[in-house]
Amino acid sequence: MDKKLLDILVCPICKGPLHFDKPAGELICRGDRLAFPIRDGIPIMLEDEARVLTPEEEVPRP
Q: Which residues fall in a coiled-coil region (predicted)?
């Protein structure tokens, strides 16, 4: 995932920051507890395509 692209992408719902989960191939919104998939290098930023994170999957805050 391109660093410049990650710097400008935000959650389409809350406009909050996204965190790249490289092993899962997803962009994570901590605020909405959603994971947006990345397919063929393209982030799919549609609410209908996102999955809800389980409590076990939530990314710890730095």
A: none
Q: If you write DSSP's letter for every residue of 4-48 in order, what string do you get?
A: HHHHH-B-TTT--B-EEETTTTEEEETTTTEEEEEETTEE---GG
Query: Of 12, 7, 44, 42, nearest to 29 (Cα)?
Result: 12
* Residue 35, in any domain of the structure: yes
Helix (H) or strand (E) holding 18: none
User: In tens digits, what is the pLDDT along the chain, a chain of 62 residues?
Assistant: 778 888 899 999 999 999 999 999 999 999 999 999 999 989 999 999 999 999 887 655 55
CATH number of 34's domain: 2.20.25.10
